[in-house]
Amino acid sequence: MTARADFDVGPLSWVKGEIDNAIQRAQEALRAFAANSADAAQLKSSQSHLHQAHGALSIVGLEGITRVSEELEGLLDGIEKEASLRKSEVFRLVERALNGIRTYLDQLMAGNPNQPLRLYALYRDVVTARGGHADPTDLYYPNLTFRPPKRDRLAGALRVGETDKYLREQRGRYQRGFLKWLKNDASGAEDMRAAIEAIEAAQGPTSQRAFWWVSLAFFDALAHKALPQDLDAKHLCNRIEQQIKRLLEG
Fold first, then answer.
1. Would 152 be classed as within a structural domain?
2. 59-73 pLDDT, tens per residue?
3. Which of 7, 99, 152, 229 is most buried, most CB within 10 Å of its CB?
């Protein structure tokens, strides 16, 4: 599959000019406000134009970059409400982030793949400026339309009333493995993987299996130490545990 085929640039091409124009006007208005912070109308204008660009992005299926523009809107809102954010380094950050969004869109139009994690450094800086904590998974939007491979054999269907008990057992198994892994016991990653494999095996349609099937690859990487045992990996393990909880709650 070509890079261009990964993302349909057609809808983006229809609104690209509008987005570029809105970003340019947002930058111009912010520069005017940075030069004269008493001119609140310029900040309002910058916010309005950024919101216009954000709205256009949200309708063309670019969830990752929309998350970046959403945080950027929050930073402009913070600048409006908190005088402590009205400083040159913050204004430069907003300018850099707007340029980053425009460059990313230009690259998409040129045929580059849609990989919003390339914007993570900018996203992290914007979130940090707002006093928040950024996580790479915030920009991770895998294509779950790809179907897992067919099973060699059909999964045994759980009898009525067994599903709740089964999922609770697997969640407990996962949680115990998670605690072991947090204590640097490498077997914990294998225990978490086994729980996810059991959950995946109990799913019926391939669309329900996709998330769990992808998660297995993550735990394979953890078990073989292909990924570091860092804060990002811990956050992702916790998010997967929350997904098990949601599945259990129906």
1. no
2. 988 889 999 999 999
3. 7
- Spatial CB neighbours of 137, under 8 Å, sequence gap ≥ 6: 232, 235, 236, 239
State pLDDT tens for residues 42-61.
Answer: 999 999 999 999 999 999 88
Can you list the residues of the chain whose pLDDT is less than 50? Answer: 1-5
Of 98, 116, 135, which residue sits at a domain end? 135
- Structural domain boundaries enclosing 187: 162-249
Number of domains in the chain: 2
User: Model-level pTM greater than 0.90?
Assistant: no
Task: Let me know whether 113 and 232 are in one domain.
Answer: no
Write the single-letter amino acid at 224: H
Q: Which of 249, 250, 244, 197 is nearest to 223 (CA)?
A: 197
Whether residue 205 sits in one domain with residue 87 = no
Q: Is residue 147 part of a domain?
A: no
DSSP string, 223-242: HTT-S--SHHHHHHHHHHHH
